Amino acid sequence: MNRKELASAVAAGTGLSVPLANEAVAAVLDVIMREVSAGEAVVLPGFGSFEARDRAAREGRNPKTGEPMTIPAGRVPAFKAGLAFRREVAGR
After folding, report:
1. Counting Cβ atoms within 10 Å, is residue 21 exposed (0-12), middle (13-18) or buried (19+)?
2. pTM
3. What is the pLDDT of residues 53-64, one digit of tens each?
């Protein structure tokens, strides 16, 4: 499912027009990205949580040459699925 299909599904489930549903989906995604970028967690009970995690510098290998290289430390977005989401996917 892509973003357009998601907006269409939201429109069908809420009675909104597709353009309004698309704006709503875009607004939700923008808020999540903005909050996580600012260091805040976004928690949606039953669905999951989004947060930024610090990743330490580490050693890796250049895929072309095989030479060792240092991968710098950085912040990465992370998602942890909630219990209801995990159960739905597992079919329980």
Report:
1. buried
2. 0.81
3. 999 999 999 999
Domains annotated for the chain, with CATH where assigned, are 3-90 (4.10.520.10)
Cα separations (Å) of 24 from 4, 33, 56, 85? 12, 14, 35, 21
Nearest to 8 by CA among 47, 28, 17: 17
Burial of 81 (0-12, 13-18, 19+ CB in 10 A): middle
Amino acid at 72: P
Cβ–Cβ under 8 Å, residues 25 and 62:
no
